[in-house]
Amino acid sequence: MKKKILFLFLFFSSSALCQNSNRISINYGRCRTDFYSKLFYNKVCIDGCYPTNQDAKTFYDFNIFYEKSIGADFFIPIGFGFNQKGFSERGMESDGTANNWVPYTETFSYGFISFYLGLSYDIIMFKKLTINIKQLVDVEYASAHGIDNNNNYPQVLYKSWPASIRSILSLEYRISKKIEFQLSPFYQTALSAYNKTKLFSESSDWQPYGYGMNIGILLNIPSGELAKSSRPKK
User: Fold this and answer.
1) Which domains are seen in the chain, by residue range?
2) Which burial class, exposed, middle or buried, applies to 33 when counting CB atoms under 10 A from its CB (0-12, 13-18, 19+)?
3) Chain centroid offset of residue 201 CA
4) What are the Cα distances from residue 62, in Å, to 20, 65, 67, 209?
5) Which among 161, 181, 182 has a CA at the least distance from the CA of 170?
6) Nearest to 189 by CA among 56, 33, 39
7) Rounded distance, CA 35 to CA 164, Å?
8) For residue 218, what are the β-bridge partners?
9) Can you spell out the DSSP letters for 113-164?
10) How many CB atoms lie within 10 A of CB 189?
11) What does the pLDDT look like over 177-224, one tens digit per residue?
12) CA distance 122 to 116
């Protein structure tokens, strides 16, 4: 009897695995970024300057995921993306004369190329709607460091490969058998500081976090189709 139950379990499990689809998603949206401890000194002025306020700023967020089905509604997503992080800053700077300080306002933005790996799970499935959660590790390459022509923002200040964690909740609406529209709020937090040194001892670390919303298209690719496409034609 136990052998029969085990056989039925393996049979239906393997059947479900064969029916699962791999999938590709393309997503674009906005992310509001901030950081935990302030104030972060990232600027050097010839005549002197210092920040007084640093506030959250909204930037673009773009990514592409390929999700490999591993059965039982679980997937392994891998992907890449492009995004910015930064903040707006107000402060005081010297105009070059003794004891004469004037206010300034600037927005600092830093470009990153993201490489994602994690786990994805369809927690609730209806006929037209699926709710999915993803937990991803995001290893980022700092593609731009906000350096201007005067070298006021030193590149040596930042890590080349910082890392963060991204949590995503996706609402996927089925348009057809192969195409779904998805709405994906997310939260992302750095695993450690993105700066590797400090310009001044009184500076905090830059450890960013952010939250945002992406919209995207999800393309379902049945596993059987992948197998057929990989076979040589006779």
Assistant:
1) 2-230 (2.40.160.20)
2) buried
3) 30
4) 26, 10, 16, 16
5) 182
6) 33
7) 13
8) 25, 180
9) EEEEEEEEEEEEE-SSEEEEEEEEEEEEEE------TT--S-GGGB-SS-EE
10) 15
11) 899 999 999 999 999 999 999 988 999 999 999 999 999 999 998 765
12) 18
Please state the length of the chain.
234
What's the whole-model pTM score?
0.81
Residue 141, CB-side half-sphere exposure with 13 Å CA sphere: 6
Taking alpha carbons only, the member of 182, 177, 160, 212 closest to residue 64 is: 182
Cβ neighbours, 10 Å, residue 55: 11
Residues 218, 25: Cα–Cα separation, whole Å: 4
Q: Provide the strand spans (E) within the chain.
A: 21-35, 49-55, 57-71, 74-94, 101-125, 129-142, 163-174, 179-190, 208-222
Q: Give pLDDT tens digits for 135-189.
A: 999 999 987 554 443 445 556 788 989 999 999 999 999 999 899 999 999 999 9
Interatomic CA distance for residues 108 and 87, integer angstroms: 5
- Supply 72's token pair: 């039982």
